[in-house]
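Course assignment 3, question 2. Fill in each field.
Student: A.L.
Task: Predict the tertiary structure for the chain below.
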Amino acid sequence: MHLTLEILRTSQAVFYALPFFWLDGFAVPAPAQVTQTVGRFANNMNKHLFEKSVNNNFRYLQEKYGFSAAVVEDYGREIFVRYERNYQTVSISYEYGSSPLIEIFYPSSETGDKPVPWASKNNVQRSRRFSKTRPKSHFSDDETSIEKYIEEIALEFEKIESKWLEARQSI
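Answer field:
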C-alpha cells in the first residue's frame, strides 16, 4: 500500500478513537428519552385547548380588524394559529413546554425593516417581529393556566398593538 494512504488511514482511526479515550474508555451516553413529554403531548389535549382558547380570545382580530378566520397548522409538537389580512399576519404559536408566542408579519415597505427571506408572501417581502406582551400570570401546561394565559395575552396584544391593528396596509 502507498505510504500516504497508510498514514491517512491511521490518522482517521486515531481521530475516531480519541473521543472514546477522552471519556476514559466509556462510550458516549445516549440522549435521554423524552417519551413522557411526547406521550403527554401526543394526546392533543393541550393543543386542542390552545386552539380553542386562541379562537375564543383572538376572535376580535376577525370581527373588529378585518383579519381572516383562524388558520390552524399543526406540526407535531408545535401548533400555529394564524390570522391573515392581505399581507399582514398575526401568528400565535405554542410548543409543549414553552409559553405561547405572538409573531407579527408585515410588508417590509411599511416600516423599512429588514425583510425575513422565508416570510415573503406572493412576492411581497415581509418583516417579522414579536409582540411584547407581558402577562401577569405565569404559564404552565395545565388546563386553567392555558385558558387564563391566552385570555391575558389576547387583551394585552390588542392594547399594545392597537395602532398597528387599526392601520390598513398600503400595498
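Instructor remarks: The two ends are 69 Å apart (CA to CA). The helical segments are 3-22, 35-42, 45-57, 60-63, 108-111, 143-160, 162-166.
Grade: pending
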